[in-house]
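Task: encode each sequence below as structure tokens.

Item 1
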Amino acid sequence: MRSVSDGPHPVCVRASWRGGPATYPRPRALLTLATAALALGALVGCSEVEDAVRDTAAEAGCQVAQEAVDGVTSQARQAVEDLGADPAGAEQELRNLRDAVATAADGLSGEVGTHLDEAEAALDDLVTQAEAAADGTQVDEAAVESAQTELDTAVDELTQVC
């Protein structure tokens, strides 16, 4: 431990001023301290900025995903109901729904992207059945029901995530 008789601290400079001797921090020591404080503040600030950017990106991803799947289950069900009356029209409607979901899924990752990919796969299965109907082939009702269930599940899980 240093005592007063040891003289000024090595980080400090002694200067005489009107009232007598005074001790001031050395400029180099102040600069080092200021640099360290600034670096620490920048690290804390970066962390906060990264968190804010991550949160904003997640919110934007959810918004894109929600817009892509908004009403997709009911529109897909309507297209499936129309398979008997207008298979070509139902096929085109299902393709449009699948393509819209695929476009939204392209830029998204994580859980949101996964659920959009699941919805796209279910719609692709429905397109396959609609193509069969348009070609005059028997529609696999079990495959249609399974694809609709998968679509409902993917959309519900996406809604829960967002």
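Item 2
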Amino acid sequence: MRYYIDGYNVTKRDPSTRNLSIEEQRDALERRLRIDAGRALGRASYTIVWDGAGGEGVVREPDLHVAFTRKPTADDAIVERVRGAKERVGVVTSDRGLAERCRAVALHGVDVLPSERLFAQASGAAKKRKGAPLPRDVGIPANANEINRELKKIWGIED
């Protein structure tokens, strides 16, 4: 599975990066995931999606794990990638609007993980929540909204 990570959504929620400059936020998250992605994402691959066509004039080496978007926002780029996915994918964000957009377009399903999941261990929160179940939306079928609409119609329930 591949996860698309809403870069600034993660760094703005992370107590250790939220007060850093934009460039320092990017560097910190990219470094952390290169070292410790397996803990949070298992064997899945990932791409951090950042707003901007290359980041404030930053010249960098090509990286399979990092994408700067030319779209209006990273959210738009993530939705486009989820829509085009040939298999179930994951999205790491705490942005409910983005999560809903991804669920609506995912042909093969999408697992949405909260941003805090990537830095829970660093803040000590993981120890408190060890063994906690995954978020409610993990594992929901891609067509769940359609199924719900059909059931409501059958049962005569109005939206």
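Check on item 2: The beta strands are 2-6, 45-50, 66-68, 89-92, 110-113. Residues 56-60, 125-130 have pLDDT under 50 and may be disordered.
End of task.
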